[in-house]
Amino acid sequence: MPAKETTTMGLGGSIFLLVLGAILAFAVRLEPEWIDLETTGWIFMIAGIVGIVLTSWYAKRKRRLHQEVHETYQNNRLARREAVRRADAVAAEGRRREEGDAD
Q: 3: alpha, beta or left, given left = phi > 0 and alpha = psi -120 to 50?
């Protein structure tokens, strides 16, 4: 099984920041002198939204940029090398591995 790649913050961390920010902005009624909790909450919510957008963009880009290389040989020599980029290449590779394991 291939190693799982993760982003710096990820979807879980982004959702956590969003929820924490909402709690600070809307639910906490303390007013300490040294920090404005409502502003801090809004900053956390914005950071969470940005994290969700970036995580989604990165995941979409990663799927789109997957590349397969197809090589054609004639008379034991490489005749053609073709790079194919497509989103379903990862799924196709997984199916090929499963079929190979079933044999």
A: beta
* Per-residue confidence in pLDDT tens, the chain, 103 aa: 444 555 556 889 999 999 999 999 999 998 999 999 999 999 999 999 999 999 888 877 766 655 666 777 778 777 777 766 665 555 666 666 666 665 4
32 HSE (CA, 13 A, CB side): 8
The size of the chain, in residues, is 103
- Token readout for 40 is 């801090």
Quote the Cα angle for 51-53-58, to 5°.
Answer: 95
Residue identified by tokens 């920010």 is: 21
Pick from 45, 46, 52, 48: which is nearest to 24 by CA?
45
d(CA 50, CA 94): 32
Beta-bridge partner residues of 81: 71
CB 51 within 8 A of CB 9: yes
